[in-house]
User: Fold this.
Amino acid sequence: MKTITVRYFAMFREHAGLGEETLSLDVATAKDVFEQTRLRHGSREPNGHCKVAINDEMADWSSPVADGDTVLLFPPVAGG
Amino acid sequence: MKTITVRYFAMFREHAGLGEETLSLDVATAKDVFEQTRLRHGSREPNGHCKVAINDEMADWSSPVADGDTVLLFPPVAGG
Amino acid sequence: MIEVTATRIEPAELQASLQDPGAGGFCSFEGWVRNVNEGRAVERLEYEAYEPLVIAEGEKVLAEALAQFPYLEARCVHRTGLLEIGDLAVWVGVAAPHRDEAFKACRYIIDELKVRLPIWKKEHYVDGDSGWVNCERCAEHGAT
Amino acid sequence: MIEVTATRIEPAELQASLQDPGAGGFCSFEGWVRNVNEGRAVERLEYEAYEPLVIAEGEKVLAEALAQFPYLEARCVHRTGLLEIGDLAVWVGVAAPHRDEAFKACRYIIDELKVRLPIWKKEHYVDGDSGWVNCERCAEHGAT
Assistant:
C-alpha cells in the first residue's frame, strides 16, 4: 500500500465534495489512482480528455506513482 | 486631342514637382496617359506594381479615357 | 510570459510592455465571454485554474511558438473567477519583426493554451442550469 | 469601417466599438514603425494616402473578408503623416463568434490592405537618405 494524496479539480472536485484527500492505495500507475478514486471524481474512465499530474508535473496515465506522491486529477480542460 | 487632368502621387508627385496638371493629350487608354507623362512621373513603364484610377474609380491600364477625365497615377503602394 | 489573474485584464498595459523598436507587427487575440454556447443562452462564466501548471505548461507553449515563429515578445494572461458577458477571459499578444510571425505565433499560442492548460470553465445558463464545459462530453465518453 | 487619420490611433477606443455580446473571439493586428527595413536603419516614416480610394477599396476588402469569414464587426484605421519608431501605423480589429474567423478575417484584411490601398510610405534613414518603399523596385522593373 502507498500513501497517495489525491487532488480533484473542477467537475471532479464538485463531485467528490472535497479538493484533496490522502488515501492508502494499492496502486502502481496514475491510471490506477484514477480508477480507484472513481466513486469520488465520478468520471467513468481516463480517456484523451482527462489529464493527470504527479507532484506538479504533467504526467501520463502510465506514469508510476510512489509512496508519498500527490496525484492531480484534471477533468477535460477548457481555457479561453 | 482630349483634355485630361493627370494627378501624380508620392514618388511620382515628387518627380513631377507638382500634384496635378491639365494636359491636351492624344490618348485612348489609361496606359497612353501613363506613357505620355513619363517625363513627369519618371517611371519607365506601367507594370504590375503601379495602379491607375479614372475619376476616383480604380481602373485598368486598358481602360478608355474620355475628354475631361481625371487620371490618377499611383506608384507601387506600401500601406501598413 | 504567462499569468493568471482574478482581476480585470488590461490590454493596453500588456501591449505597451511588448513594445520593441525591432517590432513591425503586433497581433493580439482576446477571448470574450459570449452570450451563447452550443445553442444555450449563457448568463455568466466561471473559470477555475490550477496556477502552478498553467504557468509551467504555458511557458512551454510560448517556447514552442518562439522556436517555430521567431517573435520578439509574447505575453498571455488568463482570468479566473466569475465573468459576465463581454468580459475578457484570455489575452494573448505577440510582437514580431513581421506580421506573418506575429499572426502565426499568436494563433499557435491560443490554440495550444485552450487544450493544454489546466483551466476549466463552468457555464451558468439563463435558464438557471449550469455545467462544466466539455465535462459532459467526458462523461459520455466514459459511459461508452 | 475603414478610416484614415493624421492623428494618433487609439486602439482601446476602436476595440470598445467592436464589442458584441455574440462575439467570443477578437483578433487585432497593429503595424508598428520598425527601426530597420531591408537592412537599413530607419529614423522615421512618412505615410501619404489618397483618402477617397483608401475608403472605397478598403470597404471592398472588408466586404470580401465578411463573405469568406463571417465576422460580426471589423474596423481598420491607417495613419498618415510623419511617424516615429514604435508609432502605430495601421490598426485592424475583428470581432467574431469564434477565434478561427477572427484570425482569418483579420489576416485577410491586412494582407489585402497592404497591396491594394493607395497608401505610400517614405522611409527616412538614419544616414540622412530617404526613399519611397517599393518604388525603387518599380523603377528597376521599368528599366528591364
